[in-house]
């Protein structure tokens, strides 16, 4: 078993049973809980906002990994840290003041990450790499769960891993979208540290066992 972090995405959970879904993650081998925030503008979907994050925070015992798929995320950074976020990922494509927003996240006491859509080159994060705790690579087009994994992500992870290692940094690489047992090991071998799994976990017959099996396969 590797030390890869598994982060189930609450976007794929049963929203009518959210407390128990969070407790399931608490009782599993997953280290993080991934929380997708969508505004219907940056991505063509709405998910949930601060009140749901605050509710999750009451019960979640894992690292809360908040992924802001919203326009101008700098407006809400303090609110999400106050709502329990341990990590905050903001999209390079959505922030007009990326350097400022990253430093604001860190000043607020959270870990800072930049997220990149499938079409965005990893070179866009290089100027800020020393300031980042993590880079989130989208392996599907953001906005909806259950999409098919984009195969070119493997090479993107490898390239980013070489860039991080060449600078002597310990920046994490997170992959989000279409992660399952058929591609997880290859992602880890390419250099990923954190795997976000949504539908694969929550739509399975036994999510706790699915997470354990995924961990054991890496």
Automatic annotation (TrEMBL):
Keywords: Carbohydrate metabolism, Cobalt, Isomerase, Manganese, Metal-binding, Zinc. One of its GO terms (cellular component) is cytoplasm. GO terms for biological process: pentose catabolic process; pentose-phosphate shunt. It is an enzyme of class 5 (isomerase). Catalyzes the reversible epimerization of D-ribulose 5-phosphate to D-xylulose 5-phosphate. It comes from Aureibacter tunicatorum. GO terms for molecular function: D-ribulose-phosphate 3-epimerase activity; metal ion binding. Substrate binds at residues 9, 67, 143-146, 176-178, 198-199. It catalyses: D-ribulose 5-phosphate = D-xylulose 5-phosphate. Pathway: Carbohydrate degradation. NCBIfam families: PRK05581.1-4, rpe. Its EC number is 5.1.3.1. The active site is at 36 (proton acceptor), 176 (proton donor). Gene3D superfamilies: Aldolase class I. This is Ribulose-phosphate 3-epimerase. Belongs to the ribulose-phosphate 3-epimerase family. It holds the Pfam family Ribul_P_3_epim.
């Amino acid at each position: 078993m590797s030390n890869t972090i598994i982060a189930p995405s609450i976007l794929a959970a049963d929203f009518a049973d959210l407390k128990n879904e969070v407790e399931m993650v608490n009782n599993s081998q997953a280290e993080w809980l991934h929380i997708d925030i969508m505004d219907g503008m940056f991505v063509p979907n709405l998910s949930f906002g601060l009140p749901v994050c605050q509710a999750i925070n009451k019960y979640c015992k894992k690292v809360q990994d908040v992924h802001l798929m919203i326009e101008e995320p700098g407006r809400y950074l303090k609110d999400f840290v106050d709502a329990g976020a341990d990590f905050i990922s903001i999209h390079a494509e959505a922030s007009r003041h990326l350097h400022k927003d990253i430093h604001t996240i860190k000043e607020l006491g959270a870990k800072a990450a930049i997220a990149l859509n499938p079409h965005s080159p990893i070179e866009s994060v290089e100027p800020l790499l020393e300031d980042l705790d993590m880079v989130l690579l989208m392996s599907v087009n953001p906005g909806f769960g259950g999409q098919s994994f984009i195969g070119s992500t493997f090479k993107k992870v490898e390239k980013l891993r070489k860039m991080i290692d060449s600078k002597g940094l310990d920046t994490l690489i997170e992959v989000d979208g279409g992660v399952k047992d058929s591609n997880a090991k290859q992602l880890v071998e390419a250099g990923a540290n954190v795997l976000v799994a949504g539908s694969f976990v929550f739509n399975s017959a036994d999510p706790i066992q699915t997470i354990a099996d995924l961990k054991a396969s890496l």
